[in-house]
Design brief:
Mono-heme class I cytochrome C, mainly alpha, metal-binding, two-stranded antiparallel sheet, Cyt_c-like_dom
Length: 139
Amino acid sequence: MNRPVLLATALVGVGMAAAAAEPARDAIVAAYSRQAQNENQAFDGFSTARGERLYLGPHTGGNTETPACATCHTFDPRAPGRHVKTGRAIEPMAVSVNPRRFTDAADVEKRFTRDCPNVLGRPCTAEEKGDFITFLINR
């Protein structure tokens, strides 16, 4: 490939990344990355595949009615969900459909604090939180 084509390709990639960027979400992911590095010196970045496994489950140890995030949020995170107990509607989890997802740090942490023990039977690690968000950013 010649230089102008490489430069144009790089600029298109940068433009796409900038269009998808959300400063508040980026700050949340960066904070979880710093925390994950502190928790695990071998941490080498978040994984969409691990986030997908976390989302889809099934998991043991938590509430038997909610063995996966997908129990309430559906197997397609682009679709609206429904709370398994209350029947309350839940907006889609995928950032592509719901760009407000993961933009309020206090709300994100509140939901992880509540939902991780229900699904996993324990708090989520920073790496799991970052993996989860990374998966949903890419959906």
